[in-house]
Amino acid sequence: MKILILNGINLNMFGKRDPKHYGTITLDQINARVTALGQELGTAVECFQTNHEGEMVERIHRAHQEGMDAVLINAGAWTHYSYGIRDALAILQCPVIELHMSNVHAREAFRHVSVFSEVVRGQICGFGADSYELAVRAAVLAVKGS
Ligand code: DQA
To answer: By residue range, what is the domain housing residue 133?
Structure first.
């Protein structure tokens, strides 16, 4: 089993940005955690981050060709307005799980909208870095069944 974890715009700055919402953990530390969890659960985990929307769309297209079993995405602010990424995610046939560190529904109104909602299996948000581990577990359950 192979899971791809996608991180979008500004998320390479975790550890340096807004600790009230994102804590002090870095993206490298999160990637190490999800890779270790993947080993425990018997799934390969690949992590990808970009600040460029077209690059994100192309990585999603490749995920389709590669036959990823599940795709997890924290698209950062793109979540709230990128129809390009939404349409790319809609091409995937595997479960797609949207995740966020912060509880986007308890923040500014623009963050309450996800343009991905209709094309994802579900959304996990508000658990800080644990949102990533919860999303890996949700992906394994979605693929292998509970
Ligand atoms: C975020 C929430 C988004 O609204 C925000 O733009 C981010 C991070 C989160 O992980 O909580 O960059 O996706």
So the answer is: 2-144
Q: For residue 139, how far is the Cα from the chain centroid?
A: 11
Give the chain's mean pLDDT: 97
Is 80 a residue of the active site?
Answer: no
Q: Indicate whether this model's pTM tops 0.90.
A: yes
- The CB of 102 under 6 Å from ligand 1? The reply is yes
How far is it, in rounded angstroms, from Cα 98 to Cα 5? 10
Q: Could you give the number of structural domains in the chain?
A: 1
Known catalytic residue at 112: no
**CATH number of the domain where residue 74 is located:** 3.40.50.9100
Amino acid residing at 8? G
Distance CA 38, CA 68 (A): 14
Residues 10-63 pLDDT 10s: 999 999 999 999 999 999 999 999 999 999 999 999 999 999 999 999 999 999
Q: In the beta sheet, which residues pair with residue 5? A: 47, 72
Nearest residue CA, atom 8 of ligand 1?
Answer: 76
- 88 Cα: distance to centroid of ligand 1 (angstroms): 19
